[in-house]
């Protein structure tokens, strides 16, 4: 992936030892290529001062704290590898601090909005509508990552079972439950799946495509979702495959699921990642109380009176 021997060895380690996905490798490459372009020389010889100047350059160019933190994380991973591999004796990122990040809360769709999306798909005719309904029902029922959804083998869903075996990040497998509506939408789609395979050899993918990847891409699925959002009178900017994953998690917690179970279903390695949804709940409850509780309204009126006085 790189003409730089140190970078090449780093990418080989990520692929072989950590089983990093292609998207992960591409993200690391973009971030480290950006650092290389800034330094105008090989990365292996960079000093802490070089990297501080790079972080200053990112901040001066108004990159978000999250983007700065991601690029610093890529640097830390790379230089830690160089030390462990004996290519450097010191880690120039050891004393560098990541920028402080606010806690971004996931975009949300209400249960009523999810029902509206599903109803629009249900009203569509033909194979296209059946496929889109199956994909939305699957995401909302399981919380799959979109990459897991579009690459899912058809063999996983051919058996009538209450669980799916999903291969997630790092090749780790997990079981996710499959509810009745999702199974029904899948069965309806499977009868029409041959419509997407005309003139093609047998495809291993649940959602085949004639494109070079062999399956419907996540970008195309995202476009289709936004078209459905318009028909459901929902702002398309609020709708994406990842938002459906958030809807699954948030609505499940609303109905009493525990964090550990949710962590397993989402495939999070660390429960701290899952805990973001408890903050979503707290913010929603706070807004609900402020908007509807009579004492909150009374407090607001008292403040208005005080201001007038």
From TrEMBL:
Domain (Core-binding (CB)): residue spans on this chain: 1-83
Domain Tyr recombinase: 104-290
Localization per record: Cytoplasm
Main location class: cytoplasm
Keywords, in A-Z order: Cell cycle, Cell division, Chromosome partition, Cytoplasm, DNA integration, DNA recombination, DNA-binding
Catalytic site: 145, 169, 242, 245, 268, 277
InterPro entries tied to this protein: CB, DNA_brk_join_enz, Integrase-like_cat_sf, Integrase_catalytic, Integrase_recombinase_N, Integrase_SAM-like_N, Recomb_XerD, Tyrosine_recombinase_XerC/XerD
Superkingdom of source: Bacteria
HAMAP family linked to this entry: Recomb_XerC_XerD, Recomb_XerD
Name of the molecule in the record: Tyrosine recombinase XerD
Species: Dongia rigui
Gene: xerD
